[in-house]
């Protein structure tokens, strides 16, 4: 019944959404009001779903003292699986709403330091009050051996949800990702997004520290599940919130993996190498040494198959596509690490990566961690693009008729790029005393990028194929970047009153980017008079030396004062300083000197921008058992100064502002897994120097930009809503979310296109644009007689309104995107996994004041993943995918199949794994895509990896606990 109500409600919501998008403004408001009312009604009515049996009681110790946060849980007598759980309140009382259960179950109660309570129930068929249950001490005398009770699979400690890892069964060689998939309420979808009770996880730590990176991708794929003791889930906090004990202001979750004490001393890791057809290769290594608080890890990778090299997937290692695309890759197969982008549908990448991670506690109260990353990549790509740019209808002066001036650009390019970066990240925690703590996290980066491109393009009018311009160009660009940033927090708690405290926060972000840009091009611009073609040629052989410097500093002090046990007042002041510099010198090639020595003043300019702002704020928060509310706001007093030197003329733009700022969050938790969250903010962004200074940028012969000194800052509202519910008894749950950004004032381009399709863009302000998003997800898991069934259905959508000016005519576009998806997983014990999934993406853009009123496309994606662990020691996996894009232009293939297959054999006590893998078995992989935006439709094709065969060998290394010695007396760690 609950599922039926959800589906019906979603149907009505979608119908209303479609109505919203195709009515006039007044009707729009009416439908949006109905939609909002319906969503609130939907959220409220779901509170009564699924739970119809109430169990309750009271927990005390043997002296009748009420026990708060005792864990009460129900398990199956047959297989010990957890059916449902709750915790006791301040008075020791508890209440558990669950479903009817006809099979025998255990009611278990656990509390740290006391003996467990265990009671068998033949069934759960009606409400029941268990009265007062007293927990006895574990021992009666000091010298007696304490008999440990059963560790409950789930505990709730304050605001932390804790899972006991050993209570959830996984394969002996499973990684942490496989463990998380077994935990109730935890879901990892086909895109790799992790949620707990519908709340997205954005941070994964190991023993409270980052494992190379806080997003946890390396830890998920590479740490073995059998070393994990507990999985702790909390709301993600900033360091400032964490040290001061404040509630999390965001709506994300954080996972901390604690390592079993017996496994926290030793070595473990993997080494993999592979070579295949067409010269394809891959290799990776991960080694870890853990000893108490000290953790040292090293990883490395080298490959030419568009991969980070860190997935260590037991089926496909680093091979892209299918299951590996979910965690590591974008939709086009690309991936990013430490700010660098690699591979994907745009070319083939050879990457080399080396990483080191070190964490330790040097003395009591002083700990930290540091990581170093080297990332290098060489990429090559061939690109073919067809882009249609829409323009408002205009009057043809020769014929006196309205014509469509829209034009189409067709281009071809070949690009070779190489890049490398050194990243050094650290963080330190210093406990000065019981009331004062310092956190300091400095980061350093040094990178270089070189890009060489040969390109050609031509532009024609859509209606009559009239040639407007064409060009051939060679560009060679090199950039060197140096950066330093740090985050410092000092927290002081005052013992005079609980909750009273002081925070001092200092932040800086400094970077310098030096670039050299060589441009050798010939551009022809055509004009037509009386049917006769005229041509203007722009030949360029020039170099530009660019230097960009950004220095940002923030300092803030915050004072917290408790008014009552549940109310706290906060006053703060923040100072922010932003300095930006853009210095460019252009030179033409000189035949006399045979070098780039003739200064080109039109390509040279000097821009600076300085923003100083101070923001005093005041606010308060209310924290109850189920309700948390926080609001703060104040004025932002800003001094905005800009300066430029161009063509021998100086420009100065100096403005002062007093601007509002507001921030609000509300969280309401109805039960242990059902919650509502809302966040709202109002803020301002200042324009960039090139947008506000009247400097003409003519570096590109077909695109010119000019700043506007009358430009005002962007003012915007942001709103987010989410509702979640996960029922542990039925292993099902759902989440709903919606939100948006509304621009009270936005900065947009004012573009004029001449008869040769050359564009000149200025900037101006406009209001009434927005971007909104909405969606929902439902999932259910069923375990029966060694078999597991997982279902999930979801919908993501967004709707936006964009405005701008083309040829002095205002346009607006309204874009709707809907992506429903379905996913099913079947597991037959530890022998077989089958996972089909399907998604449909529908995009539609409606235009006003264009000759074209609408553009749309549909993308279908189907994927089937199978994994077999039978017979023993054999691993056989297949990923089969099909993609179809309905509106890819003629000349670009609309669909393709991608089939990857892998066969592996474990031997030498399963420490060695030999595999043969085939990528793109059908040799059909394509790099085609279509992008529809406010002013254009773009079809693109890039080279991609094609079919290859790879042979690889993986060695697993692990040894935990006390060292053993071989016959020669040397340490024997590995086997």
Question: Can you walk me through this structure?
Answer:
The chain has 975 residues and is mainly β. The chain contains seven helices and 52 strands. A hairpin with a 2-residue loop joins strand 8 (154-157) and strand 9. It starts with a helix and ends with a strand.
Concise description?
The chain has seven helices and 52 strands. A hairpin with a 5-residue loop joins strand 26 and strand 27 (about 465-495).
Tell me the β content: over 45%
Give the termini distance in whole angstroms: 55 Å
How many helices?
7
Radius of gyration: 31 Å
Structural class: mainly beta
Low-confidence stretches: 1-51, 140-148, 325-335, 962-975
Fraction of residues in H or I helices: under 10%
DSSP strand tally? 52
Shape: globular
Mean pLDDT: 84
Q: For the report, how would you describe the main beta sheet?
A: 31 strands, mixed
Tag the structure with descriptive keywords.
single chain; mainly beta; disordered C terminus; 7% helix; 52 strands; 63% strand; 7 helices; disordered N terminus; eight-stranded mixed beta sheet; 975 residues; 31-stranded mixed beta sheet
Topology:
Layout: H1 2-21, H2 25-45, E1 53-61, E2 71-76, E3 82-87, E4 93-98, E5 105-110, E6 117-121, E7 128-135, E8 154-157, E9 160-164, H3 176-182, E10 186-188, E11 194-196, E12 199-206, E13 209-210, H4 217-222, E14 228-235, H5 239-244, E15 253-259, E16 265-276, E17 281-291, E18 294-303, H6 323-328, E19 334-337, E20 340-343, E21 348-363, E22 366-389, E23 394-395, E24 402-403, E25 407-433, E26 436-461, E27 467-493, E28 501-529, E29 532-562, E30 567-590, E31 595-623, E32 627-646, E33 649-669, E34 675-685, H7 689-692, E35 696-700, E36 703-706, E37 714-727, E38 732-753, E39 759-766, E40 769-784, E41 787-806, E42 809-828, E43 832-848, E44 854-868, E45 874-885, E46 895-907, E47 912-919, E48 928-932, E49 936-942, E50 948-960, E51 964-965, E52 971-972
Helix pairs in contact: 1-2
């Amino acid at each position: 019944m609950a599922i039926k109500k959800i589906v019906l409600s979603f149907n009505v919501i979608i119908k209303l959404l479609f109505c919203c998008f195709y009515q006039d403004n007044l009707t729009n408001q009416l439908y949006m009001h109905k939609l909002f009312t319906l969503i609130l009604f939907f959220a409220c009515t779901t509170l009564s779903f699924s739970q119809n049996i109430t169990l309750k009681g009271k927990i005390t110790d043997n002296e009748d003292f009420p026990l708060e946060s005792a864990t009460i849980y129900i398990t199956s007598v047959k297989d010990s699986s957890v059916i449902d759980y709750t915790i006791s309140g301040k008075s020791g009382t508890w209440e558990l709403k669950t479903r009817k259960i006809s099979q025998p179950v255990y009611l278990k109660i656990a509390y740290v330091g006391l003996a467990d309570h265990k009671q068998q129930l033949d069934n759960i068929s009606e409400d029941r009050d268990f009265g007062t249950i007293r927990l006895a001490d574990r021992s009666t005398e000091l010298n007696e051996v304490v008999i440990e009770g059963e560790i409950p699979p789930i505990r709730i400690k304050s605001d932390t949800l804790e899972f006991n890892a050993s209570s959830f069964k996984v394969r002996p060689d499973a990684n942490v990702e496989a463990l998380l998939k077994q935990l109730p309420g935890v879901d990892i979808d086909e895109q790799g997004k992790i949620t707990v009770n519908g709340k997205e996880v954005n941070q994964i730590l190991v023993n409270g520290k980052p494992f190379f990176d806080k997003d946890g991708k390396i830890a998920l794929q590479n740490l073995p599940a059998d070393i994990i003791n507990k999985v702790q889930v909390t709301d993600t906090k900033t360091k400032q919130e964490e040290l001061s004990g404040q509630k999390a202001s965001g709506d994300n979750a954080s996972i901390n993996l604690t390592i079993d004490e017996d496994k926290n001393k030793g070595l473990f890791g993997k080494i993999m190498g592979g070579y295949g057809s067409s010269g394809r290769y891959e290799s990776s290594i991960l080694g870890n040494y853990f000893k108490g608080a000290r953790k040292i890890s090293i990883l490395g990778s080298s490959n030419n198959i568009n991969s980070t090299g860190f997935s260590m997937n037991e089926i496909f290692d680093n091979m892209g596509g299918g299951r590996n695309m979910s965690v590591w890759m974008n939709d086009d197969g690309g991936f990013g690490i430490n700010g660098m982008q690699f591979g994907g549908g745009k070319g083939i990448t050879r990457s080399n990566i080396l990483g080191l991670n070190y964490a330790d506690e040097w003395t009591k109260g002083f700990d930290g961690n540091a990581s170093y990353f080297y990332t290098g990549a060489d990429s090559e790509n061939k690109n073919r693009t067809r882009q249609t740019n829409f323009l408002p209808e205009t009057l043809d002066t020769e014929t006196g008729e309205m014509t469509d001036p829209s034009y189409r650009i067709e281009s071809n390019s070949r690009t070779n790029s190489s890049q490398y970066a050194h990243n050094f990240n650290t963080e330190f925690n210093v406990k000065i005393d019981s009331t004062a703590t310092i956190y300091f996290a400095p980061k350093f980066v040094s990178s270089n990028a070189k890009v060489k491109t040969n390109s050609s393009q031509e532009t024609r009018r859509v209606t009559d194929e009239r040639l407007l311009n064409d060009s051939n160009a060679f560009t060679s660009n090199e950039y060197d970047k140096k950066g330093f940033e740090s985050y410092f927090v000092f927290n002081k708690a005052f013992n005079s009153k609980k909750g009273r405290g002081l925070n001092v926060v200092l932040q800086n972000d400094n970077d310098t980017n030096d670039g050299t840009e060589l441009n050798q091009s010939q551009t022809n611009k055509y004009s037509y008079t009386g049917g006769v073609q005229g041509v203007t040629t722009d030949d360029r052989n020039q170099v530009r030396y660019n230097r960009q410097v950004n220095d940002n500093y923030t300092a803030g002090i915050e004072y917290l004062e408790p008014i009552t046990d549940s109310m706290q007042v906060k006053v703060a002041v923040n100072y922010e300083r932003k300095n930006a510099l853009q210095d460019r010198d252009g030179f033409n090639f000189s035949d006399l000197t045979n070098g780039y020595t003739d200064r080109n003043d039109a390509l040279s300019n000097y821009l600076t921008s300085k923003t100083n702002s101070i923001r005093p704020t005041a606010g308060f928060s209310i924290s109850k058992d189920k309700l948390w509310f926080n609001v703060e706001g104040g004025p932002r007093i800003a001094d905005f100064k800009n300066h430029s030197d161009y063509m021998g003329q100086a420009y100065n733009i100096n403005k002062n502002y007093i601007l509002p700022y507001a921030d609000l969050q509300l969280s309401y938790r109805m039960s242990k897994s059902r919650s509502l969250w809302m966040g709202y903010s109002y803020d301002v962004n200042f324009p960039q120097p090139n947008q506000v200074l009247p400097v003409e940028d003519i570096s590109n012969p077909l695109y010119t930009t000019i700043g506007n000194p009358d430009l005002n800052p962007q003012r915007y509202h942001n709103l987010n809503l989410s509702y979640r519910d996960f029922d542990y008894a039925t292993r099902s749950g759902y989440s709903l979310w919606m939100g948006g950004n509304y621009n009270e004032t936005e900065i947009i381009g004012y573009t004029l296109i001449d008869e040769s399709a050359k564009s000149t863009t200025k900037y101006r302000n406009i209001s009434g644009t927005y971007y909104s998003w909405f969606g929902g997800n439902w999932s259910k898991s069923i375990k029966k007689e060694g078999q597991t069934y997982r279902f999930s259905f979801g919908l993501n959508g967004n709707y936006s309104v964009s405005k701008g000016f083309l040829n002095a005519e205002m346009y607006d576009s309204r874009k709707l995107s809907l992506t429903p998806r379905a996913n099913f997983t079947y597991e037959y014990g530890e022998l077989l996994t089958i996972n089909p999934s399907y998604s449909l993406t529908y995009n539609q853009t409606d235009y006003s004041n264009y000759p074209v009123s609408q553009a749309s496309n549909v993308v279908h994606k189907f994927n089937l993943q199978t994994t077999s662990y039978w017979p023993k020691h054999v691993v056989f996996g297949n990923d089969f995918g099909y993609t179809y894009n309905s509106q890819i232009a003629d000349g670009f293939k609309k669909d393709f199949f991608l089939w990857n297959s892998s066969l592996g054999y474990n031997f030498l006590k399963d420490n060695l794994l030999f595999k043969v893998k085939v990528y793109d078995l059908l040799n059909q992989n394509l790099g085609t895509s279509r992008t529809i935006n406010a002013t254009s439709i773009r079809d693109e094709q890039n080279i991609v990896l094609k079919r290859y065969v790879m042979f690889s060998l993986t060695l697993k290394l692990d040894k935990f606990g006390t060292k053993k010695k071989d016959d020669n007396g040397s340490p024997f760690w590995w086997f």
